Amino acid sequence: MLKEGDLAPDFELISNNGEKVKLSDFKGRFVVLYFYPRAMTSGCTREGLKFNELYDDFKKLNAEILGVSTDSVEKIKKFSERYGFKFKLLSDTEGKVVSLYGVKKNSAASLAAERTTFIINPDGVIVKILKNIRPAEKHADLSLEELKNIINKKVN
Fold this sequence. Notes:
With 156 residues, the chain is of the alpha/beta class. It has one domain (12-155): Glutaredoxin (3-Layer(aba) Sandwich). The protein is 33% helix and 22% strand. It has a seven-stranded mixed β-sheet with strand order 2-1-5-4-3-6-7. β6 (116-120) and β7 (126-131) form a beta hairpin. The protein is globular and about 40 Å long. The model has no long low-confidence stretch (mean pLDDT 91).
């Protein structure tokens, strides 16, 4: 089980635009790595739209947003195009990264991810884990607030 202070495990997945993306590609920047259960569902759509709305605020803080689900590349591509997401969605159809990060839903019949966010610092260390957040609880807002708190602690 990963915990705050651990080095974030590197991985490579295919994005919504068909490119290979590695977590290590973002070394030197913060990464807001959020796992979501299913594209095109009401909760995941609300969540994605809010991350998209706050995208420029995250970018100003030198942070990249990456959304991960076990959906196919085709499905996340449609999801991203339909809602105009500015950030990358990543496809983990085999559930390897979901398992690596310990966020697989407790269901033998599903590989779906639990809604969890890992804030990873520029050195690749997990500095905050937000677990079991409901989209209605302002997941993206909370992630941005936590990132600001982390940066303010580092500065002070």
